[in-house]
Specification:
With 368 residues, the protein is mostly helical. It has two domains: 129 residues; 191 residues, Up-down Bundle (Growth Hormone, Chain: A), CATH 1.20.1250. Helices cover 74% and strands 0% of the residues. It is built from 16 helices and no strands. Helix 5 crosses helix 14. The chain is globular, with a radius of gyration of 23 Å.
């Protein structure tokens, strides 16, 4: 609601400011409850994902929307590479780098302050860069936005009764109730949430299954092997999202790649149980390829869902629409690790099932 009323830019700036303040305070926490409170306030005030998705869809022309949304979603791949590196190298610097940091210094008394400070500095740099960002909320007459907003207006016209005012120049903000009646938006959000549940459960199960013993029909890989597979797939997905997918969406549209990715993802997961019959280099090569393909299919579906959500509503509704989407997605993602863990535990205890081995049923349930 805030982003739709006051603009995307103020919402983004407030979110970045909350990272600067509360992330720094988290690094200076002296008690457990101080850490909990600062992280809670950070999560409460940092609602950047919804507005940034709306901003990406508005600042780009229709033909570049896939690239814009890909940049947003690929930030996760970048974070998976940079984030652990910052934490791993900079945490407890007084013990790791005694020649640079003494135990009596602030970094010795607060061993996790340095990585938090670096993250806050990066957020501050992003905040300074935001000064030059144009506000997109009221860019009604910009030719770059006409195609996108016209598409959104056509969809919303079906959901507003008695032909009441639905013009892009109107200052009235549509109610949340009208969004809930928007079938295209609700369909896109439903697909997004269900797939987020699937993808999060897959990531939970994949790591556990890959390192589990052969007697449980796992792969007996080391944590280093799994980390390498995830790093390779993360880098590959980053390249795919920034280079290949925008061209794919430009020439094939959103729906066809979405459908192909969903079907191919099901077929790919069906082959996973048979990987336990492989060993050595052959196993490592194939598991890296399978992980890369699975994450590429996931990126295709995620980006398509995000674009469909933004084109299903007019500009004044995009902030609320993305807020609803992110909230519901977070709920599904919160449930996924527990559900995936329970399913994996059951599969480990039922290796010899009545009809299929436990690992086959495990990936069959993921495909459901």
């Amino acid at each position: 609601m805030f982003a739709d009323k006051y603009g995307r830019k103020p919402c983004i700036m407030i979110s970045i400011l909350s990272v600067i303040v509360f992330n720094t305070l988290f690094g200076l926490s002296t008690t457990y409850w101080m850490a909990i409170i600062t992280r809670g306030l950070l999560g409460l005030l940092c609602g950047i994902l919804g507005p940034i998705k709306a901003y990406a869809s508005e600042v780009c022309r229709k033909e570049h929307q896939a690239l814009g949304i890909s940049l947003v979603t690929s930030s996760r791949s970048i974070a998976l590479i940079i984030g652990p590196a910052i934490g791993g190298f900079l945490a407890r610097p007084a013990k790791k780098y005694p020649n640079l940091f003494s135990e009596e210094s602030i970094f010795g008394r607060f061993p996790y302050f340095l990585p938090c400070l670096v993250i806050s500095a990066l957020a501050a740099a992003a905040g300074v860069a935001c000064i030059w960002l144009p506000e997109t909320l009221h860019m009604y007459h910009d030719e770059k936005m006409e195609a996108i907003d016209a598409m959104g207006a056509q969809v919303t016209d079906l959901n507003i009764e008695d032909g009441k005012a639905n013009q892009l120049g109107s200052d009235r903000m549509a109610s949340t109730k009208s969004l809930l009646k928007n079938r295209q938006l609700m369909s896109a959000i439903t697909l997004y949430c269900v797939f987020s549940l699937h993808d999060t459960a897959y990531l939970e199960i994949f790591s556990l299954w890959a390192v589990s013993s052969r007697k449980y029909r796992g792969l007996s890989l080391t944590s280093q092997d799994v980390g390498t597979a995830l790093a390779i797939s993360g880098f590959g997905v980053l390249v795919y999202q920034l280079v290949i997918y925008p061209l794919l969406a430009k020439y094939a549209g959103l729906i066809k790649p979405f459908r192909f990715a969903a079907v191919l993802s099901i077929l790919l997961l069906t082959t996973y149980p048979f990987l336990s019959n492989l060993y050595g280099v052959e196993l490592k090569v194939l598991i890296n390829i399978a992980s890369l393909l699975k994450n590429m299919f996931a990126a295709t579906i995620t980006v398509a869902c995000n674009i469909l959500q933004n084109t299903a509503v007019i500009q004044e509704q995009r902030g609320v629409a993305n807020g609803i989407s992110v909230t519901l997605m977070s709920i599904f993602k919160a449930v996924a690790p527990a559900a995936g863990g329970i399913l994996f535990s059951w599969a480990q205890k039922n290796i010899t099932g009545l009809f299929l081995p436990g690992d086959h049923i495990l990936f069959f349930m993921l495909n459901m």
